[in-house]
């Protein structure tokens, strides 16, 4: 096996990331085609043919869609099922005036690369691309195919991305397993504390509450004001606490967290998370941390409120959208029935949109890909602890798990809590050191999984 110069490879990967960040793929509208064409040329120069698949975009003029998914296949001997290296090309929007750096400029300063998508998710795409280039250039013999898959539309639910590929080109992405975003490499100061590998995720639903009222002149207030009616319903929901629940993944996560050598007042509660007598109190104490709270229960977050059209007219209706994330295995019908019980107002209508791959089971933490990621993590960061992880956010892994692909999520770059907070925020960034370490981490895992 050739020895890889990861410092040099990291420099090339950073250059790829800079190039891709400079394509504005904010979704909506997405416009992933230019970035897909960049990758197609990059891989073509390395004699790796890439296919671009154009999803049908009903919002675009006929023949004018700039939405794109890209697949590259590095062939192996076929003695193992294919491995997908999955990322997405689209990014969330930006408030330019609140950024110090041009979000699409890919500036490097003080050891950090700044730009929308540096973490979510163009950073992983660039890292995966570099791994494919390394394997191809060095003529590494593979026992299984490796697929580089870069999707459209992940940030808007994936209907034109992974869902569209599964529906229209499933044969192109048949695989045994996938590595995708979703987990964490937690950095505290200069030390990686733990590597959390995502093997399960909560299911997102958009639930609408709508209240009706009698319209009229605002100078004559009426008792059935739609806004007041909806506000009363929201107050009841705010005061309602969904039950605390522990599943196999969150149990392993908290017990692993308790073993970390960190000064956290929550560590002792994590240790007792499933204790027959102390468990309930321990779980209640863990909910003091917003992230742990979301891991332990179905969550409800109002995000959009709509009502009225003039300031002197009583509205005929008021509507609020709740972004709800249900634990794996939870039934949306039962959850909505419980909300109806809590609201206890027949004049408030509660409806929902079907969630992303609802009811999908977690991927096994005993699978070879999970084990390879674990082994690689302790090679690169010897003091780190590896733990399974259930993400509170949604990823494209949900759809792949639903068709039988074992998916494992990780953001391979060591990140502090402050830098994690920049994801979807302002001045998103990744350190050059973290990128290079993440590259070695994933490369060594792929080496264990796929090299003959």
Furnish the topology, listing elements before pairings:
Elements: H1 6-21, H2 33-44, E1 50-53, E2 69-74, E3 83-88, E4 108-109, E5 112-114, H3 122-137, E6 146-151, H4 162-169, E7 177-180, E8 184-188, E9 191-201, E10 203-212, E11 216-217, H5 226-239, H6 248-258, H7 267-271, H8 279-286, H9 290-296, E12 299-307, E13 313-314, E14 317-326, H10 332-343, E15 348-353, H11 368-380, E16 385-391, H12 397-402, E17 406-409, E18 414-415, H13 417-420, E19 429-431, H14 432-450
Parallel strand pairs: 3-6, 3-7, 7-17, 8-18, 9-16
Antiparallel strand pairs: 1-2, 2-6, 4-5, 5-19, 8-9, 10-14, 10-15, 11-13, 12-14
Instruction: Give the strand line-up of the largest sheet.
Output: 1-2-6-3-7-17
The whole-angstrom Rg is 23 Å
In helices, the fraction of residues equals: 25-40%
Kindly identify the CATH topology of the largest domain: Aminopeptidase
Strand content is 15-25%
Quote the average pLDDT: 94
Just name the CATH architecture of the largest domain.
3-Layer(aba) Sandwich
**Span of the ends, CA to CA:** 10 Å
Model regions low in confidence, pLDDT < 50 over at least 5 residues: none
By CATH, the superfamily of the largest domain comes out as Zn peptidases
The number of distinct structural domains comes to: 2
């Amino acid at each position: 096996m050739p020895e890889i110069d990861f410092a040099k490879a990291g420099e090339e990967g950073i250059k790829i990331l800079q190039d891709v960040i400079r394509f504005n793929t904010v979704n909506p509208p997405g416009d992933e085609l230019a970035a897909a064409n960049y990758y197609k040329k990059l891989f073509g120069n390395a004699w790796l043919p890439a296919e671009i698949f154009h999803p049908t975009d009903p919002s675009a003029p006929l023949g004018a869609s700039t939405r794109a998914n890209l697949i590259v296949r590095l062939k192996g001997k076929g003695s193992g099922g294919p491995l997908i290296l999955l990322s997405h090309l689209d990014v969330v929007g930006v408030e330019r005036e609140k950024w110090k750096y041009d979000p699409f400029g890919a500036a490097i300063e003080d050891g950090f690369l700044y730009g929308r998508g540096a973490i979510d998710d163009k950073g992983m795409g660039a890292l995966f691309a570099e791994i494919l280039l390394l394997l191809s250039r060095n003529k590494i013999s593979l026992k299984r195919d490796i697929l580089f898959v870069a999707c459209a539309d992940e940030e808007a639910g994936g209907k034109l991305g992974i869902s569209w590929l599964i529906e229209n080109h499933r044969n192109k992405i048949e695989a045994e397993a996938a590595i995708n975003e979703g987990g964490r490499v937690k950095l505290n100061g200069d030390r990686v504390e733990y590597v959390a590998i995502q093997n399960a995720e909560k299911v997102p639903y958009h639930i609408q509450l709508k209240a009706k009222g009698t319209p009229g002149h605002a100078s004559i207030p009426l008792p059935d004001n739609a806004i007041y009616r909806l506000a009363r319903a929201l107050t009841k929901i705010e005061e309602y606490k969904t039950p605390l629940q522990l599943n196999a993944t969150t149990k392993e996560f908290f017990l692993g967290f308790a073993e970390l050598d960190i000064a956290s007042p929550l560590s002792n509660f994590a240790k007792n998370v499933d204790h027959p007598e102390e468990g309930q109190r321990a779980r209640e104490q863990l909910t003091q941390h917003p992230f742990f709270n979301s891991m332990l229960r179905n969550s409800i977050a109002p995000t959009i409120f709509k009502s009225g059209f003039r300031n002197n007219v009583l509205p005929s209706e008021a509507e609020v959208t709740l972004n709800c994330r249900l634990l794996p295995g939870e039934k949306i019908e039962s959850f909505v029935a419980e909300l109806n019980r809590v609201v206890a107002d027949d004049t408030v209508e509660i409806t929902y949109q079907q969630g992303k791959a609802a009811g999908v089971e977690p991927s096994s933490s005993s699978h070879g890909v999970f084990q390879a990621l674990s082994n690689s993590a302790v090679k690169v960061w010897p003091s780190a602890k590896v733990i399974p992880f259930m993400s509170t956010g949604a990823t494209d892994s949900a759809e792949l798990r639903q068709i039988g692909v074992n998916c494992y999520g990780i953001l391979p770059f060591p990140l502090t809590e402050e830098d994690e907070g920049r994801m979807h925020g302002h001045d998103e960034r990744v350190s050059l050191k973290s990128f290079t370490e993440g590259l070695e981490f994933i490369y060594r895992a792929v080496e264990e999984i796929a090299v003959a």
